[in-house]
Design goal:
Bound molecules: glycinamide ribonucleotide
Number of helices: 6
Binding site for N(1)-(5-phospho-beta-D-ribosyl)glycinamide: 12-14
Catalytic activity: N(1)-(5-phospho-beta-D-ribosyl)glycinamide + (6R)-10-formyltetrahydrofolate = N(2)-formyl-N(1)-(5-phospho-beta-D-ribosyl)glycinamide + (6S)-5,6,7,8-tetrahydrofolate + H(+)
Strand content: 15-25%
Function: Catalyzes the transfer of a formyl group from 10-formyltetrahydrofolate to 5-phospho-ribosyl-glycinamide (GAR), producing 5-phospho-ribosyl-N-formylglycinamide (FGAR) and tetrahydrofolate.
Site (Raises pKa of active site His): 145
Pfam families: Formyl_trans_N (PF00551)
Length: 196
């Protein structure tokens, strides 16, 4: 079974959606670790109730990104993690993790990339007045939301829609699309392994 580490900074609704699909037998992986850079985040409780191990750290307590990513890497190796799933991890991933996990780090972003990268993609979409936005799942490289796109789903922005309502509808798409796309990716990798 593929072992996933989910990285998250906040609420963890995507973390929960992935864990639910695994429990339901629709995603053939296992979450071996939650990595969280906000020791008070709600996602930590979500992992704890599911008995999923947590590595929470305070970035400020490390001299630099390379140092905390080294600490993360050690955890990932100890737990034999195969894939890194960024689910609302609000930080750029550096070379310490990118090199050993090349092609095995994916991220979800609440816009149709390359539109509205970075923070507050939903606020950016409202501000821009776009009629269509959506969700992107992509491979992670050293840039800000720039890696190869794996999957996208569009959503129409309603007249008079505010941030909260758009966020709610975008997240509903995420909770369905993210586990499905991870499953598709894992199955594709399995098929490649059989061939070679
Ligand atoms: C999600 O909507 C995700 O797409 C977004 O953060 C939210 C986390 O929610 N990610 C980014 O904006 C990355 N740049 P969650 O903690 O409830 O899953």
């Amino acid at each position: 079974k593929h072992k996933l580490a989910v990285f998250a900074s906040g609420t963890g609704s995507n973390f929960d959606a992935i864990a639910e699909q695994i429990e339901a037998g629709r995603l053939d992986g296992k979450i071996g670790l939650l990595v969280c850079d906000q020791p008070g985040a709600k996602v930590i409780d979500k992992a704890t109730v599911r008995n999923i191990p947590v590595f929470a750290f305070q970035p400020k307590e490390f001299p630099a990104k390379a140092a905390f990513e080294q600490a993360i890497l050690k955890e990932l190796q100890e737990k034999h993690i195969d894939w890194i799933i960024l689910a609302g991890y609000m930080r750029l991933v550096g070379p310490t993790l990118l090199a050993p996990f090349e092609g095995r780090i994916i991220n979800i972003h609440p816009s149709l990339l390359p539109a509205f990268p970075g923070k507050d993609a939903i606020g950016q979409a409202i501000e821009a007045g776009v009629k269509v936005t959506g969700v992107t799942i992509h491979f992670v490289d050293e840039g800000m939301d720039t890696g190869a796109i794996i999957e996208q789903e569009a959503i129409r922005v309603k007249e008079e829609e505010d941030r909260a309502s758009l966020q709610k509808r975008v997240q509903a798409i995420e909770h369905n699309l993210f586990p499905k796309t991870i499953q598709r990716l894992l199955m594709a990798v399995n098929r490649e392994e059989i061939k070679s």
